[in-house]
Design brief:
The structure is a homodimer of 221-residue chains. The first copy, chain A, contains 7 helices and 12 strands. The longest helix of chain A is centred in the middle third of the chain and has 14 residues. In chain A, 31% of the residues lie in helices and 24% in strands. With 221 residues, chain A is α/β, with parallel strands linked by helices. At the A-B interface, strand 8, strand 9, strand 10, helix 6 and helix 7 of A face strand 8, strand 9, strand 10, helix 6 and helix 7 of B.
């Protein structure tokens, strides 16, 4: 079955104090988003790659591709108000009856080929597959003014790509937007679907801080 | 009030496939445990440092100190069966009526001086203070064969040093050992005490994997 990946790069967050959103920052000689696209292409060179960009950065991205002579084929879709709307735009742009679709954060270039295989294979088999990792530290849950320890063996930190059958995604994104949709799995879960978890890889961090950027520089070298 | 820190280095875990437990591995020119001790000394040079070691590694540590000309004053206490027993041995070795006591993982050399101030000040004011950080990723809780997303704004990942008034620790470690004691805060919590949370620092990771070791090499440079 044909595979698609939607790379969500619509964020315009400038939290790191950088002049451009972090997906455009160069790590090991090229923008993070190019590393991410390359990783998916390395996993399956027949996969169709869809990049969701904020309109304001569309021309800038084209310029970057020219500057870095980045020729890996991909299609651009415009971002929406929230992640939900961005992903919905991309899902609606897929003209197939059925496919396996991954949805991935642009700032996670360190996803391993093994994680990609587990996610796409899992979605083909179970309808959806979401990569997670365990936590090495104790975990507490805040409950009003109190907090309590939770059994950390029951806690999973969720990564991407979150992978789904296209037919399931189409149904999920027909729903009204809800602020409780914190990721794509939560949109599918709202349909009453069970979320199938697979093993992610610890290096597959979401590059958020300057420290993460230094870690990425090291791991992608 | 006088400050003490118990550095728990009793683990003999060889999970990284290294020839010695990870607290003895060299990062940026010296064993991790030496970086950790130095950090606490930098925060308060009058603080008394107690290192809990497995008997089998006592001579080895003495050798390392000679080899690296490490002269920072510290006292050695023998480890017990579980972390609970190791920490208890160290707590009982403190001959004071009252003090503020930090309990810290040997393999967390990247704790910041700001985190240390928040923990020791918090314990003085509230009786106990535990450093935590928020999670940037979605979080799920496993519940039998099911799993559900939890509001990640309510989740805190717990670090060390977990700091307490000595009188509180003395009462806590009089309790019988319970396998549910996953960290020192959970021992104190079993008394019915409320755990006061303070902000940790993201770099203050527990060095567990080879990847963490590379991150530490970068951050301690």
């Amino acid at each position: 079955m044909k595979r698609y990946t939607i790379i969500v790069a619509a964020g315009s967050g400038l939290r790191m104090g950088a002049p451009v959103p972090k997906q455009f920052l160069a790590v090991c000689g090229k923008p993070i988003l190019m590393h991410t696209l390359q990783r998916f292409h390395d996993y399956d060179r027949h996969m169709e790659l869809i990049v969701v960009l904020n309109e304001d950065y569309r021309a800038y991205w084209t310029e970057l591709c020219e500057q870095y002579e980045f020729v890996l084929p991909h299609r651009i879709v415009s971002g929406g108000r929230e992640r939900f709307h961005s992903v919905k735009n991309a899902v609606l742009s897929i003209g197939e009856l059925e496919a396996v679709v991954g949805i991935h954060d642009a700032v996670r270039p360190m996803v391993s080929l093994e994680t990609l295989a587990r996610c796409f294979d899992g979605a083909l088999e179970f309808g959806c597959a979401v990569p997670t990792v365990v936590v090495n530290d104790s975990v507490r849950l805040i409950d009003g003014n109190e907090n309590r320890s939770v059994d950390r063996s029951k806690v999973r930190v969720v990564q991407t790509p979150q992978c789904f059958r296209l037919s399931l995604l189409n149904r999920a994104f027909e729903q009204e937007f809800d602020p409780l949709f914190t990721d794509d799995a939560s949109v599918v879960e709202a349909l009453g679907e069970k979320i199938h978890l697979v093993e992610g890889n610890r290096e597959n961090i979401k590059i958020t801080t300057a420290g993460d950027l230094r870690t990425a520089e090291l791991l992608l070298a």
